[in-house]
Amino acid sequence: MKYIRIFLTVAVIFSFCSAFSFKHKPGKDKEVYAFGMAASFNDTVVYYTSIQKLDSVKLGKNGFLPRREAYTSQLKDYLAYNLSSPNYTCMIYFSKNKSKLEKEEIKVKDKYKSTKSFVLVPIDSTAFKFTKPKENN
User: Fold this and answer.
1) Which residues contact 51 (CB under 8 A, 6 or more apart)?
2) Enclosing domain of residue 89
3) pLDDT tens digits, 21-69
4) Does any domain span residue 52?
């Protein structure tokens, strides 16, 4: 009887501890959305992309988008080569929550619209799409 009680106690403790140690399933990761903005000190045109779902992206431990600089470089290269607009400063905004990102997009656009000296120009979503950067090994 004593051994049964010890065995059951150990089994309950083991099952309780193992229930909290299961990892998050890889297929259940939340999607990450992003949009880009590009502005220049020499021009009144501000380019922006639509909100896009980023392919196969998982945010880092601190909630940051890995390789953010590669995404901004993609937008900068697109502007330089396709729209003949070099020397733009590009920014990327990202979130797991699409509705929060939509609110952020409106807020950022409103800042540019409020000065009335900038012209907001959308970048066609069929012409430009963020792609996952290649991993450096």
Assistant:
1) 33, 34, 35, 98, 101, 102, 105
2) 31-122
3) 555 455 455 789 999 999 998 999 999 999 999 988 888 888 889 989 9
4) yes
